[in-house]
Design brief:
about 280 residues; Protocatechuate 4,5-dioxygenase, Chain B; 8-stranded mixed β-sheet; 10 strands; binds 3,4-dihydroxybenzoic acid; binds fe (iii) ion
């Protein structure tokens, strides 16, 4: 049976992709952020997951303002990356697992979660930067296969924190009913404090970020009380990207332990969290 063995929360900031391209990892601005990934690399190397389910948001590459599914899932053989405007280099194609994708999609719809199923899906920095962070310098990404799960956080109305958590739980039920022996890791990318435009651009609410991360581990359902509006007022218009972390946490069954947390602030315009959770 397939088994979810751990979860990772990560950044997807385009400037991180730029720093990787220019090899700035040990520069003072970037050092603590990149060094904060060492425990993740160790864990991935030891546990060697076969599949990564990646909750991310598409920043207008595939789903622009004219078509905006709330939840979509990739079911392709592979995913090609494109730069949707940040000047980022593309990365090597990412391998999919269509059989597992279809199993998850069938299970979700049966479970009353209606999702858009994408047999082709170009991927932007929301997915590519985390792949570069998890598998630095490896165009094969340690052979891992990826199931992209895209959550709308660009165009209102956006799904609630509770809805994203419940989606994660439904995905976990699907994975656990899959009959192949696979080790699965779940990733949530984006956030945390985050305002890219307007007068409040660059505003960071560290206290709020740390509260979110704390409750995410110990009592995620406590966070259901925060509406999308509350998130925006507390930590910026793009702080809604925290929903990727809610999906990730919902998908991690069992008794959860935090193995690692790094919070670097500011990284570009955000509070950047890096988290490793285990349930084994
Ligand atoms: C930044 C962060 C993001 O999540 C994003 O999608 C684009 C830009 C930033 O902090 O610069
Ligand atoms: Fe983003």
């Amino acid at each position: 049976m397939a088994k979810i063995i751990g979860a990772i929360g990560s950044s997807h900031i385009p400037a991180v992709g730029m720093a990787i391209a220019k090899q700035l990892q040990q520069e003072p601005y970037w050092k603590s952020f990149f060094d904060g990934h060492q425990p993740l690399w160790n864990w991935l190397n030891t546990n060697k997951p076969d599949v990564a389910i990646v909750f991310y948001n598409d920043h207008g590459l595939e789903f622009f303002l004219d078509k905006k599914p709330t939840f979509s899932i990739g079911a392709a053989e592979q995913y090609i990356s494109y730069d949707e405007g940040w000047g980022l280099a593309t990365i090597a194609p990412i391998q999919g697992d269509p059989d597992l994708s279809w199993h998850i999609c069938n299970s979700l719809v049966e479970d009353e979660f209606d999702i858009s199923i994408c047999q082709e899906l170009g991927v932007d920095h929301g997915l590519t930067v985390p792949m570069q962070l998890m598998f630095p310098g490896d165009p094969n990404y340690a052979g891992i296969k990826v199931i992209p799960v895209v959550i709308n956080c660009e165009l209102h109305p956006m799904p609630s924190l509770k809805r994203c958590y419940n989606l994660g739980q439904a995905i976990a039920r699907a994975v656990e009913s899959y009959d192949k022996d696979l080790k699965v890791v779940v990733l949530g990318t984006g956030g945390l404090s985050h305002q890219l435009d307007g007068q409040a651009a660059g505003r960071i609410n560290k206290k709020f970020d740390l509260m979110l991360l704390d409750y995410l581990v110990k009592d995620p359902e406590y966070l259901f009380k925060y509406s999308i509006r509350d998130m925006i007022e507390a930590a910026g218009a793009q702080a809604v990207e925290f929903n990727m972390w809610m999906g990730m946490r919902g998908a991690l069954p069992g008794k959860v332990e935090q193995l690692h947390l790094n919070y670097s602030v500011p990284i570009s315009n955000t509070g950047a969290g890096t988290m490793l959770l285990s349930n084994t």
